[in-house]
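For this section, I looked closely at the sequence of one protein beside the C-alpha cells encoding its backbone, which the following lines show:
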Amino acid sequence: MVRLKAEPPMPVRSMEELLAIGHAIKVEAAGRYAELSERMQAAGNGSVAAVFQRLSRDAHEDMLSIELQAQTSLGAAPNPRAMRWALPSILDEEAAGELASSRIVTPYRALSVAVRDAEQAFMLWSYLAAQTESTEVRHAAEARAQLELDRVASLRRDRRKAYHLEHPSIGARASSDTRNDADISLAALEERMADMLQQLAQAGAHAPSGLLQLAEEARSMAETPLPARAIPSSIFGAITKSMDDPRALAELLVERYLDAAEHPQDEAAMARAQSLAARAINRLARLEHDPEKWIPVFGKDHAPPKR
C-alpha cells in the first residue's frame, strides 16, 4: 500500500514556505540520482546509469521551474529558512543504497526505486494540500501533486517496458492470480466507505459534519465511471480486512486508483483515474492527520455494523 513515510508535522502557511519545500525536494533528488548515475557508470552498468542520469535531469528541470515560480510570484529565489520543520526525505534511501553497492542492477530495479520516490512525492504534496488553510497554497500544492502523479504514471509505464525487455518470455500472458468480480468494484468500495463514514457521524463522532462531507464525496466518487479491470487475488484479503475500518479502506482505494491510472484504456480514463487518486489521497490525509477527531478507536463493541 502507498503510505507517506513521514507526515508533515504542521500545515504550510505561505507560498514562500511551500516553494522552499518543493525546491529542497528537487535539489535532494537531482543530487541523489546524479550520484547513483556516476556509481553505475563506474561499475560498468551504462544502461542503469542512463536511467538515473535522466531522472537527475528531470529533477533538475523541476528545480529550475520552482525557482522560476518563486521569482515570478515572490520576487526572490526559494529560501530554505522559510521551512519551519526539517524536511523528511521522500527518497527510498535503503533501496538506493542497495543499488549503489550492486553490480547487477537492472533498469527495472532502478525504475522501481524511482516509482516509489515519485509516489512519496505525490503523497507529500497531497498531504500539504489537505492540511493547509491557505487557498493559494492548496492550489499550488495540488498542482505539484498532479505533476508527480503524471510522473508516477510515466515511470510505471517505463518500468513495465523494462520488465518485458528483461523477461521476454512473459509477454502479454494473462496473469493467473487475477479474477473479475463485479461485486468488489471501486464503486462498491466507495459506497462502503460512504456508509461507514455516515454511520460514524450518526454515532456521535467528534466532527460529524466533516464525516458527512467525506461520505458525500465518496458517493460522488462512486459515480465516476472507470473501466472494469481484473482484481489481483492477492489483495482480496486486504479488501476483506478493510471493510470495517475507514482508514484502511481509504488507503486501499488510493492504491487501486493508482493502479487504474497505470492501466488506462484511453486518455480520458487515465485522467479520471488520476483525479480520483488525488481525491482519495486528500481523503486519506484528512483521516490520518488527526484520526481521533474523525474516527473513534474501533474495538469489538464499537465497529460500525457490516453492510
Q: What stands out?
A: Residues 170-183, 296-307 have pLDDT under 50 and may be disordered. The beta strands are 178-179, 231-232.
